[in-house]
TrEMBL record, chain A:
It is a multi-pass membrane protein. It comes from Oryzicola mucosus. The chain crosses the membrane at residues 12-35, 42-62, 68-88, 100-120, 140-167, 199-222, 234-259, 271-292. Its main location: membrane. The keyword Transmembrane applies. This is Branched-chain amino acid ABC transporter permease LivH.
From TrEMBL, chain B:
Keywords: Amino-acid transport, ATP-binding, Nucleotide-binding, Transport. It comes from Oryzicola mucosus. This is ABC transporter ATP-binding protein. The keyword Nucleotide-binding applies. InterPro entries: AAA+_ATPase, ABC_branched_ATPase_LivF/BraG, ABC_transporter-like_ATP-bd, ABC_transporter-like_CS, BCAA_Transport_ATP-bd_LivF, P-loop_NTPase. One of its GO terms (molecular function) is branched-chain amino acid transmembrane transporter activity. The lineage of its organism: Bacteria, Pseudomonadati, Pseudomonadota, Alphaproteobacteria, Hyphomicrobiales. PROSITE patterns: ABC_TRANSPORTER_1 (PS00211), ABC_TRANSPORTER_2 (PS50893). GO terms for biological process: L-amino acid transport. Residues 7-239 form the ABC transporter domain. Belongs to the ABC transporter superfamily.
Length: 300, 242
């Protein structure tokens, strides 16, 4: 039982990171109907920027409180990755809007390769480690919970609450949902659709940047290729939860996290990815639009 | 009929790909008027309504609203000049509630006059008040039509474009909607440009009318003149009554 709870906590940690990334996929899909395959690399760039900020902070100051360091890393990473994603949308996706459906998809794959190669060339191909930032571990009834895990879960919960509020209760969120449902009508009501789409890319990138910072803090290492696997997993999470659905993205992320950690604990760690993707396949056979997704056909 | 043209459309041509949908249309709407555009299915009426908003864009000709050339202006900026439209197919946001749909209509002023204006809309269409928390996609056709018009009114328009406000509605509700339009025009001086297949009702309501056939305006005149015109009677008014 203790072992099970332990794995549940590990799964929750992992799932939080996947969930944060998955929101970026699902939002962009919701509003312009394309999969931004470069989003995983945006996450990786977020982690790299956090790394650079960490190195700058530790070389400039003798000692920086961990909370402040993490906060600065997150904020800088959010700003910079937002800039990246905003630029990508503007130069690579916007000119193709209204073109045939596969065009932006191919461009997105191209952007993904371009970003990871850019980081490979500028930062080097090797793993970049950082010293342990947070090392405290709590033992409660035989279960060990690290402070890192607590930070990840709490930060995710706070961000998701803010994000939920933004989407459901503000005029910006309302405009976003309107664009998602009928872009032309939104424009007829005076909504600047291009601007709303840009903001969506910025929001997705910010959450991915936080995920990147947390990833770096948790594993203490990042490399140029780290965008790919977490990116694909988060995309899987978004599909599993129902692409286009925000609660679905979070739920999907958590599920993938749980499946992975349970499978690694009870069966074989080598096959954890196989397990995650198999479950995706099985769920999609019975629920083609994901767990919380809506069917494509709609009476209007 | 206070003289000044609020909307002036001159020689507008619109294409869908290579197919020409409008062949040089001239229409003008003066401040304070109700102008009706009648014509058969596929004549280009809705295309003209959407061309005013630049989607699709006019390939030639000019559209001037209130002294501003809007022919090449982005759609959302045209809306910000206070032209509102209840478009073809109503285009209610299906997964938003009635309230959110109305809020979207009021987004130009960032909901500044929302409370005041929503009461006016509920006064015109009490049914919407009962449905306030319901999702747009679950409303009946008539309720969606009311919502679409109500949403357009929330923008405090100078010019209201209505695309077939009577489509698919019971006669009683059509009368209610036409009464509401007349009332808005009379009490608030709202200028209305409407497209209708229900030519009889529309021409009775309108100060002036235009007849459109295959992308051309073929006739125009006051509502009463067009109603009395034998050609129009034969083509649009008595077709089903033999």
């Amino acid at each position: 039982m203790q072992y099970f709870i332990q794995q549940l906590i590990n799964g929750l940690t992992l799932g939080s990171i996947y969930g944060l990334i998955a929101i970026g996929y699902t939002m962009v899909y919701g509003i312009i109907g394309m999969i931004n395959f470069a989003h995983g690399d945006i996450f990786m760039i977020g982690a790299f920027i956090a790394l650079i900020v960490f190195l700058a902070l530790t070389s400039l100051f003798y000692s920086v409180p961990v909370v402040i360091a993490l906060l600065i890393m997150m904020i800088v990473a959010m700003l910079m990755t937002s800039l990246y994603n905003w630029t990508i949308e503007k130069v690579a996706y916007r000119p193709l809007r209204g073109s045939f459906r596969l065009a932006p998809l191919i461009t997105a794959i191209g952007m993904s390769i371009a970003l990871s190669n850019f980081v490979q060339v500028t930062q080097g191909p090797r793993n970049k480690p950082i010293p342990q930032m947070v090392s405290r571990v709590y033992e409660i009834g035989g279960i060990s919970i690290s402070l890192k895990q607590i930070i990840i879960v709490v930060v995710t919960a706070v961000l998701l609450t803010l994000f939920w509020y933004l989407v459901n209760k503000t005029s910006l969120g309302r405009a976003q949902r309107a664009c998602e449902q009928d872009r032309k009508m939104a424009a007829l009501l005076g909504i600047d659709v291009d601007r709303t789409i840009s903001i969506t890319f910025i929001m997705g990138a910010s959450l991915a940047a936080v995920a990147g910072t947390l990833f770096l803090m948790y594993y203490g290492v990042v490399s140029f290729s780290d965008g790919f696997v977490p990116g694909v997993k988060a995309f899987t999470a978004a599909v599993l939860g129902g692409i286009g659905s925000l609660p679905g993205a979070v739920l999907g992320g958590l599920l993938i996290g749980f499946i992975e950690s349970m499978w690694s604990a009870y069966f074989s760690i080598d096959y954890k990815d196989v397990a995650a993707f198999s479950i995706l396949a099985i769920v999609l056979i019975f629920l083609p639009s994901g767990i919380l997704g809506r069917p494509e056909v709609e009476k209007v | 009929m206070a003289g000044k043209a609020l909307l002036d459309i001159k020689g507008v041509e619109t294409y869908y790909g290579n197919i020409r949908a409008l062949n040089g249309v001239d229409v003008s709407v003066d401040e304070g008027e109700i102008v009706a555009l009648i014509g058969a299915n596929g004549a280009g009426k809705s295309t003209l309504m959407m061309t005013i908003f630049g989607t699709p864009r006019a390939r030639s000709g000019s559209i001037v609203f209130n002294g501003t050339d809007i022919t090449q202006m982005p759609t959302h900026e045209i809306a910000r000049l206070r032209i509102a439209q209840s478009p073809e197919g109503r285009r209610i946001f299906p997964r938003m509630t009635v309230m959110e749909n109305l809020q979207m209509g009021a987004s130009l002023d960032n909901l500044k006059y929302y409370d005041e204006d929503v009461e006016k809309v509920f006064h015109l269409f009490p049914r919407l008040k009962e449905r306030i928390g319901q999702r747009g996609g679950t409303l009946s056709g008539g309720e969606q039509q009311m919502l679409s018009i109500g949403r357009a009114l929330m923008a405090r328009p100078k010019l209201l474009l209505l695309d077939e406000p009577s489509l698919g509605l019971a006669p009683l509700i059509v009368k209610q909607i036409f009464d509401a339009i007349r009332e808005l025009n009379r009490t608030q001086g709202l200028t209305v440009f409407l497209v209708e297949q229900n030519a009889f009702g529309a021409l009775k309501l309108a100060t002036r009318g235009y007849v459109m056939v295959n992308g051309n305006v073929t006739m125009s005149g006051s509502g009463a003149e067009l109603l009395a015109n034998p050609e129009i009677r034969a083509a649009y008014l008595e077709g089903g009554r033999h």
